[in-house]
Design a protein that fits this description.
Helices cover about 65% and strands about 0% of the residues. It is mostly helical. It folds into two domains: about 45 residues; about 120 residues, AhpD-like (Up-down Bundle), CATH 1.20.1290. α4 packs antiparallel against α5 and α4 packs across α7. The chain is globular and about 50 Å long. It starts with 12 loop residues before the first helix and ends in a 15-residue tail after the last helix.
Length: about 190
Amino acid sequence: MSTTRIPKAEITGLYGALVKRFSRKLLGRVPDPLGVYWHNPAVLKATMGIGAKAAKWNACDLSLKSFAHMAVAAQIGCSWCLDFGYFQAFNEHLDLDKARDVPRWRDSVVFTPLESAVMGYAEAMTQTPPSVTDDMVAELRSQLGEAALVELTAFIALANMNARGNVALGIESEGYAASWDLKPLATPALRSRA
């Protein structure tokens, strides 16, 4: 049963057949977001297009971008993004112990100082209003360089767009990680906001 706020549309036509075939080959099923976004194929094509282009960016380390995306998802509360991000980390042969700990990264001992700085930056970008500081940018710029920092920033912005859209439309986890018998994701640590 769907938990989405807009019922999934029937995916039809030639483009629909291609999307479904590609999804089933890659994921074993057609994900809920495709059915929801199928109500407006132009929006779906645009978001998939930018996602495909972003996947080709290579100035910033893939694991840093993955952890940043999952930190955004944890902060916003996008269970679909967290689940899929963990599943992607598995498929991309990233460190799964680290990936599963992203929701509680501040209390975890598995992350390097750079990885922690990246997730702190992702959270600062995600807050409303954003709370990014000059010191955060200077630290990441000195460790990553300008090209990687620009890429990371754009990647975090896209993660915000996707996670916020999924939460608003009621798109929730579909159990990708569980279907591969991956260890459960850590639960976010509760902390007070100053």
